[in-house]
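Re: Re: token formats

Sure, here are both.
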Amino acid sequence: MQIAVATSDKINADHFGRAQGFAIYRWEEGEPEYVEYRETNVTPGEKHQWNKGLSILEDCEVIIVAQAGMNAKYGIKQAGLKLVEEEGTVEEVVKSYIKHMEFMKKL
């Protein structure tokens, strides 16, 4: 599965519509593998740019963000992607998601 994390500084998880890009990870089992950073080309300060982010994440299954607005949440759901809202560094939120998924597999 591919996991996208909204981030502008490549360190911290960011708001979906304001993120300058997404860190993309691949994970099946064990440790996640960093794949690439994809830029969104959002205009700083402009509102409602969630579609710019969504358009570059078609091959991802999960999107992790610090926050997402209502329009973005609707668009993500319509695209069939899973949205996870969590604050922290990119590495922390990816590991937290994987830990949760591994726990859920045991149930």
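Second one below.
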Amino acid sequence: MAETNPPAPAAAPQQSEIVINDKSAHLAYSNFARVTATPEEVIIDFALNPNPFTTGRQELAVNHRLILNCYTAKRLMLALGQTLERHEQTYGAVELNLMRRVQAGAQQQPPRPQ
């Protein structure tokens, strides 16, 4: 009678560790983003709008353009959503309407002495 050994259990897949080196990272501030897409990529243009209250046509210079594949864009969307959710739980809702945000800020300011 031949001995049969049970098959060895498959080794658990190892987790990869990603170490970030940000020494050569380019830093920029942006208060404007435009998102466009192709069937294969998501393109995010970042700019600085120095006059957000200006009406009519404004020309903004794109400072940075980020091109992501759709998988990375979806992971970024989820990470940003989780980050903003934690922010709002801690600090309150982020008001996107600029005029309401300005009005709320004016109401919170104490009156200036004359």
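The chain has a mean pLDDT of 87. Strands lie at 32-37, 41-47, 62-69.
- S.
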